[in-house]
Design a protein that fits this description.
binds nicotinamide-adenine-dinucleotide, 7-stranded mixed beta sheet, Rossmann fold, alpha/beta, 6-stranded parallel beta sheet, 345 residues, single chain, binds zinc ion, Quinone Oxidoreductase, Chain A, domain 1
């Protein structure tokens, strides 16, 4: 089968790989219909994720059709159309029972990381019963692909951890796919203001269309002053960090209001300063989280009832045979204006 294979930092190819086989009775084999590329795949290609070894098939998002199921799989059968969650989880260990499947003792984020992933014609999914979701009749499959990772990430790590409330003030730093997913899902709670911050004016204009009440280009180094002015010098109740660099986390520390929450989403590769000398008396909360995908059933229901349209995040479409071109397009988003790219097999 065709697959996107990682060969070490900076190296990848579209290669011929053996079709996966079931290894355990709880596995399912899924024929991929649609997949996509995540910012995290770019981190892997930079060599930032040491758990990914040479020869690994990348990808942790996608939809498909079940080709084969192990003898212990109860809830799915051959021919079922499914959403693949970026988190595969046993459903039984202590972390799974504590609604923290991201830290499952037998799974977690494994796809396209510790085991072969979804940027291929077929993928083996461990713990199929607790890692796959049926695609309901009438729900758009491309929109579903956004539920493998980015929608639950923006919602759980940003909006839920950030305790977005009716009439509250929110700032989201980073208007990439994840920041925009937080913007879409923050609106479930009717905050009064959502201020989006980025360096890219195109992404900020997309954010405006998606419901941001104000946008701030932080390229002038005055984002803090601008946001304080926008909020009557109070700051924001929720500051969501959706970039993953020290400057953006520190901006969140500077703009959080007394009693507010900093909800970190970004994957950080370097040391970031926590300014307790400025924050100790501010009654704030700082949260971190690896997406658990525990909100996926809720998000599927929201799609079924057309309460949000994550398909708006899709800007480009490719065939699996063009996946190298898809990576180029996605990696040069400032020039190509790419948000999410769909790859069809
Ligand atoms: N916690 C989790 O479970 C989880 C899951 C998925 C992704 N992530 C992480 O979330 C982050 C966002 O993901 P994404 O796919 O949207 O990434 P992305 O790279 O597409 O988007 C980041 C955005 O930040 C902007 N940006 C860069 N530097 C900036 C600065 N100094 N000030 C303001 N904006 C700046 C960029 O222009 C871009 O629009 C990444 O770090 C990703 O690895 C975390
Ligand atoms: Zn991802
Ligand atoms: Zn588990």
């Amino acid at each position: 089968m065709k697959a996107l294979v990682y060969h070490g930092p900076g190296k990848k190819s579209l290669a011929d790989a053996p079709k996966p086989a079931l290894l355990l009775p709880t596995d399912a084999l899924v024929r991929i219909t649609k997949t996509t590329i995540c910012g995290t795949d770019l981190h892997i290609l930079k060599g930032d994720v040491p758990t990914v070894t040479e020869g690994r098939i990348l990808g942790h998002e996608g939809t498909g059709v079940i080709e084969e199921v192990g003898t212990a799989v109860d809830h799915f059968g051959v021919g079922d159309r499914v959403l693949i969650s970026c988190i595969t989880a046993c459903g039984k260990c202590e972390y799974c029972r504590r609604s923290m499947p991201s830290h499952c003792e037998h799974g977690g984020w494994t796809l396209g990381n510790k085991i072969d992933g979804t940027q291929a014609e077929f993928v083996r999914i461990p713990f199929a019963d607790t890692s796959l979701y049926p695609i309901p009749e009438g729900v758009d499959e491309e929109a579903m692909v956004m539920l493998s990772d980015i929608l639950p990430t923006g919602f759980e790590c940003g909006v839920l951890n950030g305790k977005v409330q009716p009439a509250s003030t929110v700032a989201i730093v980073g208007a990439g796919p994840v920041g925009l997913a937080a913007l879409l899902t923050a609106q479930f709670y009717s905050p009064a203001e959502i201020i989006m911050v980025d360096l890219d004016d195109h992404r900020l204009s997309v954010a405006k269309r998606f419901g941001a009440t104000a946008t701030v280009n932080s390229g002038d180094g005055k984002a803090r002053q601008t946001i304080m002015k926008l909020t009557g010098e109070r700051g924001v109740d929720t500051a969501i960090e959706a970039v993953g660099i020290p400057a953006t986390f520190e901006l969140c520390e500077q703009i959080v209001a007394a009693g507010g929450t900093i909800a970190n989403i970004g994957v950080h590769g370097t040391k970031v300063d926590l300014h307790l000398e400025q924050l100790w008396d501010r009654n704030i909360t700082v949260t971190t989280r690896l997406v658990d995908t525990v909100s996926t059933p809720l998000l599927i229901k929201i799609l079924r009832f057309h309460k949000i349209d994550p398909k708006l995040l899709i800007t480009h479409r490719f065939k699996l045979g063009q996946i190298l071109e898809a990576y180029e397009t996605f990696a040069h988003a400032a020039d190509t204006r790419a948000l999410k790219v769909i790859i069809e097999t």
